[in-house]
């Protein structure tokens, strides 16, 4: 019997109840190793994922110093931009478990091919997403939003979408290196990019140090420049760094294989759709809240920025789970797959529990960092309490998706996310928000129910699939 490192009464282990057996298992030596390995992989990815969403958070906070209408414009444009962003990031996730499996058997030539195909796919994807949303941005006029908000949101969105091209290129290299368990450099590049974004926001929004005072548009151009810097830095690291020389064939962008492209997209597209369905539900919620008032929309953006921050941090744990489960799956180690997956579930539950507590304790303080409008702060404060209650669900469902992606199970999880958010969550949001007159809080209640439904089913799905490996 494995010795438990924590002081739990031996009577508990003699008791054959399910709870005691579960505690014994989760505190065993295998799981303690699993926690350590997952955290070692996850913390750089967490900071890197956090960096993606922090661009929007910084924009929201700094634009909030200009006015509520401008902040509502950022909320409206970010609702569509984030929707496209997570789809692009999700598609790039198709590379990671394949690289992890190839790396477990030291197959350098296959990894090099995955690098080449992943970067090509992501570059084309970034261009297509930019062209798509650039052509569709005028549809914001059809969503019955305040016209002064729409007039500011459309040009802001167009420039933000231009940044999708370098971001997708960055993501192609990033997912390759993470599949090899090199996670720290992407973190450092993302942190550096965010510091650059903050500096450029300060200079270009307010016109400091001789820069033109561009207001709202200064914010999106600052984001674009920081995205370009990310792509250049990540390319340079992989191309010139000595450990990656064995993958140099991956930089010869010729002889693209249709079969390997399909293999990557078979995981990547469902992964992108999984994120799309969840974030799309919250994006559509922005439109529904716009029917209420710009203040409600601004408050929603503040609370959502904070909730999205914890979500992206949890998605870092999800990425680590995908890599570790992918490694164990490549080695055909069933128990290793289950330990890797469930250790990630435990970590994310502890982490999101702490985030939920902080949301409740700081519900009045955190919104004041984004705006001085007392009405917006009061609404955002009430939304943070609701966000606190769905933190566990949000963390469990995103780790479930990552763990399942590690065993290349993506089709059923995609259906689960579609049903959870678009068949259950959004309709209930509309009923609570407008039919029962609960307003913006009612919309968030509906989204919480969708998240909980997804979390339960994805957890059960991983348990079922990993048992049958």
Helix content: over 70%
Total tally of structural domains: 1
The number of helical segments is 17
- In angstroms, what separates the terminal alpha carbons? 25 Å
What's the average pLDDT?
82
| Rg, alpha carbons | 22 Å
Structural class: mainly alpha
Low-confidence stretches: 1-15
Strand fraction band? under 5%
List keywords for this structure.
469 residues; mainly alpha; 17 helices; globular; disordered N terminus
Describe the structure.
By secondary structure, this protein is an all-alpha fold. It has one domain. It has 17 helices and no strands. Helix 6 runs antiparallel to helix 7 and helix 9 packs antiparallel against helix 10. It is globular, with a radius of gyration of 22 Å.
Give a short overview.
The protein has about 475 residues and is mainly α.
Layout of strands and helices, then pairs:
Blueprint: H1 10-14, H2 18-26, H3 29-63, H4 68-92, H5 95-104, H6 108-136, H7 147-162, H8 164-179, H9 184-206, H10 216-240, H11 258-290, H12 294-330, H13 334-361, H14 374-389, H15 391-406, H16 411-435, H17 439-467
Helix pairs in contact: 3-4, 3-9, 3-10, 3-12, 3-13, 4-6, 4-7, 4-8, 4-11, 4-12, 5-6, 5-8, 5-12, 6-7, 6-8, 7-10, 8-10, 9-10, 11-12, 11-16, 11-17, 12-13, 12-14, 12-15, 13-14, 13-15, 13-17, 14-17, 15-17, 16-17
């Amino acid at each position: 019997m494995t010795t438990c490192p924590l002081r739990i009464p031996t009577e508990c282990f003699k008791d054959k109840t399910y709870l005691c057996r579960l505690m014994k298992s989760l505190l065993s030596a295998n799981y303690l190793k699993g926690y350590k390995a997952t955290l070692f992989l996850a913390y750089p990815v967490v900071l890197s994922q956090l960096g993606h969403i922090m661009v929007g958070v910084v924009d929201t906070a700094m634009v909030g110093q200009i006015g509520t209408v401008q902040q509502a414009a950022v909320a409206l444009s970010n609702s569509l931009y984030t929707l496209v962003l997570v789809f692009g990031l999700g598609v790039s996730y198709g590379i990671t478990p394949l690289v992890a499996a190839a790396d477990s058997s030291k197959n350098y030539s296959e990894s090099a091919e995955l690098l080449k195909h992943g970067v090509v796919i992501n570059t084309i994807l970034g261009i297509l997403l930019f062209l798509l949303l650039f052509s569709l941005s005028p549809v914001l006029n059809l969503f019955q939003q305040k016209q002064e908000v729409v007039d500011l949101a459309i040009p802001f969105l167009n420039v933000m979408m231009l940044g999708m091209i370098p971001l997708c290129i960055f993501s192609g290299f990033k997912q390759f290196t993470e599949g090899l368990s090199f996670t720290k450099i992407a973190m450092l590049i993302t942190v550096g990019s965010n510091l650059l974004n903050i500096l450029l926001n300060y200079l270009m929004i307010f016109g400091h140090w001789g820069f033109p005072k561009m207001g709202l548009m200064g914010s999106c151009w600052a984001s674009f420049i920081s995205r370009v810097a990310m792509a250049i830095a990540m390319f340079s690291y992989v191309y010139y760094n000595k450990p990656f020389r064995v993958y140099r064939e991956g930089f010869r962008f010729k002889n693209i294989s249709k079969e390997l492209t399909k293999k990557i997209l078979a995981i990547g597209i469902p992964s992108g759709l999984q994120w799309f369905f969840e974030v799309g539900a919250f994006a559509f919620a922005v439109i529904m809240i716009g029917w209420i008032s710009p203040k409600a929309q601004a408050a929603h953006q503040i609370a959502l920025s904070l909730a999205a921050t914890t979500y992206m941090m949890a998605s870092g744990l999800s990425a680590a789970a995908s890599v570790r489960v992918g490694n164990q799956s490549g080695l055909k180690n069933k128990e290793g797959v289950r330990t890797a997956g469930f250790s990630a579930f435990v970590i994310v539950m502890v982490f999101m529990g702490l985030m939920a507590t902080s949301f409740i304790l700081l519900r009045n303080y955190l919104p004041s960092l984004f705006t001085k409008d007392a009405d917006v702060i009061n609404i955002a404060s009430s939304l943070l309490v609701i966000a606190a209650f769905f933190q566990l669900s949000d963390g469990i469902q995103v780790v479930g998706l990552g763990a399942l992606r590690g065993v290349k199970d993506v089709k059923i999880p995609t259906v689960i996310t579609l049903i959870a958010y678009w068949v259950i969550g959004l309709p209930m949001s509309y009923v609570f928000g407008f039919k029962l007159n609960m307003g913006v809080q009612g919309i968030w209640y509906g989204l919480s129910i969708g998240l909980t439904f997804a979390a339960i089913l994805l957890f059960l799905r991983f348990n079922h699939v990993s048992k049958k490996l």
